[in-house]
Structures are given as C-alpha cells and as structure tokens.
Amino acid sequence: MNVLNKGPWYVVFVGACPGIYSSYKEASRYTHGYPKQEIRKFKTKQAAEAEFNKRSRSDYDPKKEFKWSYQRPVRR
C-alpha cells in the first residue's frame, strides 16, 4: 500500500467546503459553526473517495445553463 494513501482520512459531507482532508484539524476548519455539519473518518484514501463519490451529486454540471420553469398564473 502506498504511504500517501494510509489514513486516517476525513471526509466533510456537510460544511463550507465539502471534500477529503488528511487531518481532522483541516476538516474541522470547514465545518466549525456550520449547522448540521458532518465529518467521517476513513482508514484509506480509496474508502474516503468511494464514500464521497457515492454521496455527492453525480448529475451536477457547473457548465450547464439553468432555465427557469416558472409560468405566470392564469388570471380569471
């Protein structure tokens, strides 16, 4: 096993900057004061990446153009 992949690894699911971090201190920086924060600890980086990818939104595309679907109400 590669030394860089050994843990612990911390995943921030709910916080200011969701992602994978190598120290608890760094991960807690992004969740301090955040409501309903969620940090989980993993032994390997692969396990952390797998869980993060499983729980993140795979359909999100930042380049996609957003269109409103609002229709004006019919006046009677």
Describe this structure in words.
This protein is α+β, with helices and mostly antiparallel strands and 76 residues long. It has one domain (1-70): Ribonuclease H1, N-terminal domain (Ribonuclease HI, Chain A, 3-Layer(aba) Sandwich). The chain has two helices and three strands; from the N terminus they run E-E-H-E-H. It has helices at residues 24-29, 45-55, and strands spanning 6-14, 19-21, 38-44. A three-stranded antiparallel beta sheet has the order 2-1-3. It is elongated and about 65 Å long. Residues 8-50 form the Ribonuclease H1 N-terminal domain. It comes from Salinimonas iocasae. This is Ribonuclease H1 N-terminal domain-containing protein.
Looking at this structure, what is the CATH superfamily? Ribonuclease H1, N-terminal domain
What characteristic shape results from the CA principal axes? elongated
Helix-and-strand structural type: alpha+beta
The end-to-end span amounts to 71 Å
Any idea how many domains? Answer: 1
Strand order of the largest sheet: 2-1-3
The amount of beta strand, in percent, is 25-35%
Q: In the CATH hierarchy, what is the class?
A: Alpha Beta
Order of helices and strands: EEHEH
Strand tally is 3
- DSSP helix fraction: 10-25%
Supply the number of helical segments: 2
Most strands sheet: 3 strands, antiparallel
Radius of gyration, taken over Cα atoms and rounded to an integer in Å: 18 Å
**What is the CATH fold-level name?**
Ribonuclease HI, Chain A
The pLDDT mean sits at 81
Architecture per CATH nomenclature, i.e. the level-2 architecture: 3-Layer(aba) Sandwich
